[in-house]
Design brief:
The protein is an alpha+beta fold. The chain contains 3 helices and 6 strands. The protein has helices at about 5-15, 40-50, 95-115, and strands spanning about 30-35, 55-65, 75-85, 130, 135-145, 145-160. Strands 1, 2, 3, 4, 5 and 6 form a 6-stranded mixed beta sheet that branches. Helix 2 links the parallel strand 1 (about 30-35) and strand 2 (about 55-65). The protein is elongated. The two termini are about 25 Å apart.
Length: about 170
């Protein structure tokens, strides 16, 4: 099972290591996690604080547990990544969005590679699967008249074991 803080840390680390995003938590904030997808004030505050040219926003508010009608239990975490770039006067909106879509594809490629190598959680005993079957994306913007980009929706799947524990339940010995 993947915990929220692990999920956020993974995407923040990607944003630190991606040369175009270049997230530096203290000096060049270019990655942020939105706790509540329906809280537009939180989103607005993050966007207004940005001083960078490209930013990545993570929204992960839904998921499900599945027993897959077997003993292969999974947690499926639905998330969105928003890739945003600030439009300059000498760029067209199409150019800005094209750069965002390229960055999004680079993230997807890295996520697939990391999942195949067991690097999303940095623990070979805890595998996270990321399948590129269908990843819908859509154009976004303008946001505050200068930010444009793409939103990608995807699912991360993590196996786990369900176990009833006597340490949790009084009536189980």
């Amino acid at each position: 099972m993947i915990q929220e803080h692990e999920f956020i840390a993974y995407f923040e680390e990607l944003s630190i290591n991606h040369k175009s995003v270049n997230h530096q938590p203290e000096t060049n904030e270019a990655f942020f996690y939105v706790e509540d997808a329906f809280d537009l004030d939180e989103f607005d505050q993050h966007i207004r604080r940005l001083t960078c040219q490209m930013a990545v926003m993570l929204v992960a508010d839904d998921g499900q547990f599945n027993d897959n009608n077997s003993n292969n239990h999974t947690q499926e975490l639905d998330a969105q990544l928003l890739f945003l770039a600030r439009k300059s006067n000498d760029q067209s909106i199409r150019e800005v969005r094209s750069g965002c879509l390229n960055t999004a594809l680079e993230y997807i490629t890295r996520m697939k590679s990391d999942a195949n190598q067991g690097k999303i959680l940095n623990d070979p005993k805890r595998r996270v699967n990321f399948r590129i079957e269908r990843i819908p994306y859509k154009k976004i913007g303008p946001i505050l008249d200068e930010w444009y980009g793409y939103e990608l929706s995807f699912t991360i799947t993590c196996p786990f074991g369900w176990k009833v524990s006597s340490g949790t339940w009084r009536d189980i010995k």
